[in-house]
Amino acid sequence: MRRTSVPVLSLALGAALTLSACGGGGDPLDAGSRSGSQDAGTSSEAAAGTGDGEVIVGSANFPENVLLAEIYAAALDDAGVEVTKRLNIGSREAYMAGLEDGSINLIPEYTGGLATFLNPEIDVTSSEEVLADAQANLPEGLQLLDISAAEDKDSLVVTGETADELGLTSIADLKGKEGDLVLGGPPEFETRPNGVDGLKEVYGLEFGEFRSLAAGSNLTVQALKNGQVDAANIFTTDPAIQENGFVVLEDPESLFAAQNVVPLISSDVVNPAVEEALNAVSAALTTENLTAMMVEVVSEGQDPAQVARAFVDGI
């Protein structure tokens, strides 16, 4: 199945996106800026690149990725690795620029999203094939460590009422009905191959309107609940799906590829201690325990660093 090709944004644009995506807290990729708490064993000194044995852990700007970054940081700290955290950087376009220029050198990634970003023409969907495609197209100097069983996929979600009213169980069921509907999702969903363009290419869907919403934020949930959007792109581990009785529409054409959580890291900071610590995290992560941790962070308002510490202590 051939997907619509969307040009990958340049690294220069990615760097610019970083500034806008982080809100008023400054640029997390700037050596003088800090995001997130600094745990015991975390470097408090700013650095443009890596120091001797230092690993700079970044995250995208949504709660689950911040949680995963905290888990990586805690595991590395336990392994005696010097860690700096630069969290809430922004979208993939932004943090890939940081990996390229060395201002960060580790980030939690998702195999399907990364593979599609690197190769918009990707036409495989299984975990093994998606991983292989991503590895084949990685920029020089970057590598993937062990993937986890934990998977958080993009999905198209509607309320239970909308599903009943329109007879929806799969994305394909939207055909012929979507022209009167508003689709919500993060800004990049409008241009990514598995977003608005992919829905048109794969399912023949053209929504009446696209409304830009923050990735992984409560704003998306509220917009769906309040009827400001009729369908929304929500990650499958988001506890709001179950809490609100939302319906995840099936994806029979596999528009959304496998999305296993995996560490993406600069090769020059990989050593046995780093690799062992991060691979142990991947071995322990499952979709179930990741979803449970997201309930603690999103629904219960717990500190991601504390939730991460409890998880790492249990490995």
Automatic annotation (TrEMBL):
<keyword id="KW-0732">Signal</keyword>
<dbReference type="InterPro" id="IPR007210">
    <property type="entry name" value="ABC_Gly_betaine_transp_sub-bd"/>
</dbReference>
<feature type="region of interest" description="Disordered">
    <location>
        <begin position="28"/>
        <end position="49"/>
    </location>
</feature>
<dbReference type="GO" id="GO:0022857">
    <property type="term" value="F:transmembrane transporter activity"/>
</dbReference>
<dbReference type="GO" id="GO:0043190">
    <property type="term" value="C:ATP-binding cassette (ABC) transporter complex"/>
</dbReference>
<feature type="compositionally biased region" description="Low complexity">
    <location>
        <begin position="39"/>
        <end position="49"/>
    </location>
</feature>
<dbReference type="Pfam" id="PF04069">
    <property type="entry name" value="OpuAC"/>
</dbReference>
<feature type="domain" description="ABC-type glycine betaine transport system substrate-binding">
    <location>
        <begin position="54"/>
        <end position="313"/>
    </location>
</feature>
<feature type="signal peptide">
    <location>
        <begin position="1"/>
        <end position="21"/>
    </location>
</feature>
<protein>
    <submittedName>
        <fullName>Glycine/betaine ABC transporter substrate-binding protein</fullName>
    </submittedName>
</protein>
